[in-house]
Amino acid sequence: MLLGACGDDGGALNPTTTLSPTTLPSTTLPPTTLPPTTLPYDPSVPYWLQGGFGPVSEEIEATELVVRGSLPSSLHGLYTRNGSNPSTGNSPHWFFGDGMVHGVRFEKGKAAWYGNRYIGTPMYADGREFGDFEGIPGFEETQANVSVFAHGGRLLALGEVGWPYEIDPIDLSTIGATDLSGDEFSLGGNVTAHPKRDPATGFLHFFGYGFTPPYLTYYVASADGQELIHRTDIPVDAGTMVHDFAITDRDVIFWELPVLFDLGAAAAGAINPFAWDGDYGSRVGVMPLGGTGDEIRWVEIENGYVFHGTNAFRDGDRVVLDVSRMNSMFDEGSDLNDSLSFLTRWEIDTGGAELTWSATRLSEIPLDLPEIDDRFTGREHSVAWLVETNDTAEGNLEFNNLEFNGISAFDVASGVLDRWTPGPAVQPNEVTFVPESDSSGEGEGWLLTYVWDKATDSSALAVLDATDVSAGPVATVELPQRVPFGFHGTWLAGEE
Q: How does pLDDT run along the chain (496 residues), one tens digit per residue?
């Protein structure tokens, strides 16, 4: 049963400011955006503390939001997205601020509410920054800043390590850390940010990696989210940064790549406790869905790094897996811009005594932060939506040279990209797909994404037709404050 390990942390949150309602007539979205302006970037300040990345200081709520264009009447529920927002105004890396969720509630096609809240972790409540952990990170000791995921009617904020934190979908306040322990299985100290729900069973498959043995643990939770129904340790030799994984209708797939946790460096106060170690090697492991760790089979692959997989599926003896692959990560202190992500297909043949592996790059445009129609998780998908990244000194990160260039729909059969590239003034984030209805076909629905307008230093929620991305937003919802660039979001359907 889900346990509230920290109780209701609502009192620990900053006071919430309610804005007066403002309404303006809806208008047709202009075909072009304002030209970019030059913001006062400070080379002495880290990129993640300024511009579109910079944290916001207030938690606010607003109603009767201004809409430009026409919102689909089928949108009825809550869209929310997590990200790093250091409450002290400082953090050693973009990845290491306090978790903050920003949400917009739709009521049958009307934008009814916006709110943002910090995740009420002990680290946030105590005003502690990354590195100031009480012991090794894990359990309640997390910033819960990477994703938010809806399962069993609950909204869970997840970090790279530590337990999930349950969030109240009404006002985004924190209910508390959650322990999915059941009668037979208990949750270890760490859960990562990318669970996968099997559309056939509704079971939630997820994992956690740790800094001490066991380094990698695989879990399955019940469809109603009430308890763990399976747990097994996966034998690996070190604490590696395994950010994501994949499932098919019969397999679990892990990729273990050479970004290793350095306990000594962490104890010495290193800003980033992870480092590239090419000598460790790279491998992909395949095991039965719901299986045990001793059943996993590994195949060695070329060195590289992958934060995010798009999806995986079975094709006979082959496991087909699409990922956003980088050449390296954190190599000699490198950061995200030093190795762009390219959509790549890995194929693992499981039919022989030994696994074999091959790779094919699917696009020459850098693509990451993938999304699919979740009803096809673990099944062959025909379309995926990804964020285009652009390595350019003319981007919003004058000292990091990375910008979010647009949204692309990737047609798997043809390899064609349907691209929305709004220009340097407007930069979208990861999209969340919402089906038009439960019975609509794959990819028939809407894409939701927060966008930052560099010209006005403001944010909006853009709604795109998932079948016609290049047409641009059918509607935008103006937001009462800037939403910093963040990570991963979810959709929680409303009750009819």
A: 222 233 333 333 333 333 333 333 333 333 333 334 446 677 788 888 988 999 999 999 999 899 999 999 999 999 999 999 999 999 988 999 999 999 999 998 899 999 999 999 999 999 888 877 777 788 999 999 999 999 998 999 999 999 999 999 999 999 999 887 777 889 999 999 999 999 999 999 999 999 889 999 999 999 999 899 999 999 999 999 999 999 999 999 999 999 998 766 665 666 677 889 999 999 999 999 999 999 999 999 999 999 999 999 999 999 999 999 999 998 876 666 567 899 999 999 999 999 999 999 999 999 999 999 999 999 999 999 999 987 554 444 444 446 799 999 999 999 999 999 998 789 999 999 999 999 999 999 999 999 999 889 999 999 999 999 999 999 999 999 999 999 999 999 998 7
| CA atoms of 398 and 337, how far apart (whole Å) | 12
Q: Which amino acid is at 193?
A: A
E strand or H helix that includes residue 449: strand 445-453
CA dist 273 and 287 (Å) reads 29
Is-contact 193 179, C-beta < 8 A?
A: no
Instruction: In whole angstroms, give the CA distance from residue 7 to residue 329.
Output: 37
How many other CB atoms are found less than 10 A from the CB of residue 493?
13
Domain-by-domain residue ranges, the chain?
A: 3-18+37-493
User: What's the CA gap between 100 and 221, in Å, rounded?
Assistant: 25
Q: How far is CA 120 from CA 37, 176, 201, 208, in A?
A: 36, 7, 32, 21
> Which amino acid belongs to residue 306?
V
Distance set, CA 217 to CA 204, 273, 351, 461 (Å): 14, 20, 26, 36
CATH architecture observed for domain 3-18+37-493 = 7 Propeller (2.130)
At 441, list the tokens.
């076909």
Q: How far apart are CA 15 and CA 75, in angstroms?
A: 30
Provide the token pair at 304. 């590289």
**Per the structure block, which two tokens stand in for 320?**
């087909």
